[in-house]
Design a protein that fits this description.
Order of helices and strands: EHHEHHHEHHHHH
Number of strands: 3
Strand order of the largest sheet: 2-1-3
Largest sheet: 3 strands, mixed
Helix content: over 70%
Strand content: under 5%
Shape: globular
CATH superfamily: Rhodopsin 7-helix transmembrane proteins
Number of domains: 1
CATH topology: Rhopdopsin 7-helix transmembrane proteins
CATH class: Mainly Alpha
Radius of gyration: 21 Å
Distance between the termini: 72 Å
């Protein structure tokens, strides 16, 4: 195609979850409530980590960063979704879409390796408890966190650049609830096979590789817990790992469904799956971790009781 004859798209139209006007207000209210609860839940975990010295351990260090990423993750997409639920024209500017794709990719890619770092931390704590303080030194878990952010940022930058350097000459309607790469590629007026290959390869490197690291860690953890489960320490380890594995299942199951498919066509079913990993997962994570973790519950109760005691 002659690039001189291509009319550059200046904005995109997002289809959203439903085309029924009567449902828009209801969906807006539901998503607004979910968004507020998510912000409060994850912020509470961060505050508990900062204010409670007992939680200043590698496990809660990773959990606090994971909660921070969840806040960023849901804030990238949901505010624009909320605005579009009530708007007659559900649009997003071209560069707004670029920012959304990059920020969403950074948060998603980073979360994959933070989850892997959390699994490794639990592996060391359960399988090598006597060496835990030696192996999981501050420099080690800081490097794991920095590495996670670098992987997420680099992966997202690659996707963003190769996607938005493509020519877009119309139509400009994205069959999705937010700007995501697979539905955006459908709008490119050029061959996208290279982009699809890059998506698959990087998804394997980021999503599948981190998932394999988690599975390997849990294989060793399960073997160790089988011999410890009759003790109180074994039961506590089992409870902590169950919480983590629940988060992993929700997040990785929906992400793999979306990004490891052989084709890029996005259906209404895919939009619902996207809600699962972009909206529901960040909502559930603080409840999964806080309700199943006695240390976290005690820290939160102590924080919320402090203002009452000072009166």
């Amino acid at each position: 195609m002659d690039q001189r004859n291509v009319t550059k798209v200046s904005e995109f139209i997002l289809l959203g979850l439903s085309d029924v006007p009567e449902l828009q207000l209801l969906i807006f209210i539901v998503f607004l409530i979910i968004y507020i609860i998510t912000l409060l839940g994850n912020s509470s975990i961060i505050c508990a980590y900062i204010l409670s010295t007992k939680l200043h351990t590698p496990m809660y260090f990773f959990l606090a960063h994971f909660s921070f990423l969840d806040i960023c993750y849901i804030s990238v997409n949901v505010p624009k979704m909320l605005a579009n639920f009530l708007a007659e024209h559900k649009t997003i500017s071209f560069y707004g879409c670029v920012v959304q794709v990059y920020a969403f990719g950074v948060c998603g890619g980073t979360e994959c390796y933070v989850l892997a770092a959390m699994a490794y931390d639990r592996y060391v704590a359960i399988c090598h408890p006597l060496l835990y303080s030696v192996i999981m030194k501050r420099t080690v878990y800081n490097r794991l966190m920095v590495g996670s952010y670098l992987i997420g940022s680099t992966n997202s930058l690659i996707h963003t650049v190769i996607t938005f350097t493509l020519p877009f000459c119309g139509p400009n309607t994205i069959n999705h609830i937010f700007c995501d790469i697979p539905p955006i590629l459908q709008l490119a007026c050029t061959d996208i096979r290279i982009n699809q290959i890059v998506i698959f390869v990087t998804s394997v490197c980021v999503v599948v590789l981190s998932f394999i690291l988690i599975v390997i860690s849990y294989a060793y953890i399960i073997a160790a817990i089988i011999g410890l489960y009759s003790t109180s320490g074994g039961k506590k380890a089992f409870s902590t790992c169950t919480s983590h594995f629940t988060v992993v299942t929700i997040f990785y199951g929906s992400v793999m469904f979306m990004y490891l498919k052989p084709e890029s066509n996005v259906s209404s079913q895919d939009r619902l799956v996207a809600v699962l990993y972009t909206v529901i997962a960040p909502l559930l994570n603080p409840f999964i971790y806080s309700l199943r973790n006695n240390d976290m519950k005690r820290a939160l109760i102590k924080i919320y009781k402090k203002p009452k005691l000072s009166r």
